Amino acid sequence: MPLRLERIDWMPSPPLAPDDGPIDLGHLKRMTSGDPCLMREVLALFASQSGRLLEALAADLSGGVGLAHTLKGSARAIGAFAVADAAEAFEAAMQANEGPADAFAALKLAVGEARAAIDLLLKRS
User: Fold this and answer.
1) Is the pLDDT of residue 12 over 80?
2) Do the beta carbons of residue 25 and residue 117 sit within 8 Å?
3) By CB distance 3.0 to 4.6 Å, which of 52, 57, 91, 92 could disulfide with 68?
4) What is the pTM of this model?
């Protein structure tokens, strides 16, 4: 009996991890209902807030758990998932008292990348 093959049209699966760079634009659009003015506003607020939070952390790492938690929530809201992950890692390092300086350096890098992406997005629109 011969094998009968049929063509099946497959739908592409979404990526397992966002590939939009430091900001997941699809997530941001969903969170802002696609409103470009609101997207600009929340991006600008995040850029400003993240800068202030990093300055506060740099001045005194001991109060970092609460600040990192705030940053983590804000980052997730706009789709800056690398920042959220780095903030969560910093928060865990602070709670466990294990290498907060290394975790802080990773957080600064993630925030810097997100802020650079935000600057580009705000200049484009």
Assistant:
1) no
2) no
3) 91
4) 0.81
